[in-house]
Amino acid sequence: MKGAILFQIIFVTAYIVVFQLVVSRRLLSGSGMSVHVIDVGQGDGIYIELNGKPVALIDGGGDYTADKYILEKTGLGCNIPLVVLSHDHGDHFVGFKRILERCKFGILRYNDVVLDGLAVPSSVKNNPKNKVKKTFDGEQFVIRGVFIKLFVPYESIHGMPKNLNNASVVLLAKYKDFEVLSLGDLEAEGQERLDLRKLKRLISGRLDVLKISHHGAVNGYSRELVAELKPVVCVISVGEFNTFEHPSLPVIEELEAAGCGVIRTDKVGDVVISSR
């Protein structure tokens, strides 16, 4: 793996041996970028920080778990430079909306192919003081030294499939030679629309962390993307005993066969992975 990468997992047991992970809270005062895949159950809530300072939030889960996590577990406060809603499904936006109502944020981005007031309140969206707007494929930012690029496979209502998962905004975060890619719930057909050549040019060697799409479902797995980006660690945000039977065992087996260490929130709880 590139550089010295410290993996920090909260409530880890068996995975400590497999991945040589270190349990610690030192990352909050340490240097480097950390990605927190919050255990929100069956949903997504991903928080990125650098040197103990907030950088970005992607989604917020289906309840208020992410809100509580940011307040109580990180101690980083609630003023987030960039917030991104991957797509308009309740297991991603309920906690996100709560955070928008309570926290301060700098920039909000979303794909409004199919978006209603449930996810982004009109009071937030229409407030001229807020930097809220529809994103576009390739939009990028540099926040506290972290490079962030957004990818939107389906930007237009024309040709947009009925499956809202494919409206997901994909986010790549890069700090030095440490990269994290979050796919939202983008399904395989949507992932096929990603320009993997452009993605690979942004990645130094193997991709460090891949947040697996759609909670490890078969329809969210792209063999081509995994083969091209060669992720080192694959994190699955998924609820314990969920009714969808996520994640799929064949997906896990294929990821492991491809050389990616699989970590699941339903097994280990909150996942924190840091660069050093």
CATH topology: Metallo-beta-lactamase, Chain A
Shape summary: globular
Write down the secondary-structure element order: EHEEEHEHEHEEEEEHHEHEHEHE
| Beta-strand percentage range | 25-35%
| Low-confidence parts | 4-29
Which structural class should the secondary elements be placed in? Answer: alpha/beta
CATH class categorisation = Alpha Beta
Helix content: 10-25%
Number of domains: 1
Q: Number of helical runs?
A: 9
The CATH homologous superfamily is termed: Ribonuclease Z/Hydroxyacylglutathione hydrolase-like
Distance between the termini: 12 Å
Task: Based on the coordinates given, report the CATH architecture.
Answer: 4-Layer Sandwich
Q: What is the topology, as strand order, of the major beta sheet?
A: 1-15-2-3-4-5-6-7
Mean pLDDT: 85
User: How large, in whole angstroms, is the Cα Rg?
Assistant: 17 Å
Instruction: Give the total of beta strands.
Output: 15
Largest sheet: 8 strands, mixed
Describe this structure in words.
Keywords: Membrane, Transmembrane, Transmembrane helix. It comes from candidate division WWE3 bacterium RIFOXYB1_FULL_42_27. InterPro entries: Competence_DNA_uptake, Metallo-B-lactamas, RibonucZ/Hydroxyglut_hydro. Pfam families: Lactamase_B. The chain is globular, with a radius of gyration of 17 Å. 49% of the residues are buried. It contains nine helices and 15 strands. About 9% of the residues have low confidence. It has a single domain, classed as 4-Layer Sandwich (Metallo-beta-lactamase, Chain A), CATH 3.60.15.10. It has an eight-stranded mixed beta sheet with strand order 1-15-2-3-4-5-6-7, covered by helices on one side. Strands 8-9-10-11-12-13-14 form a seven-stranded mixed beta sheet.
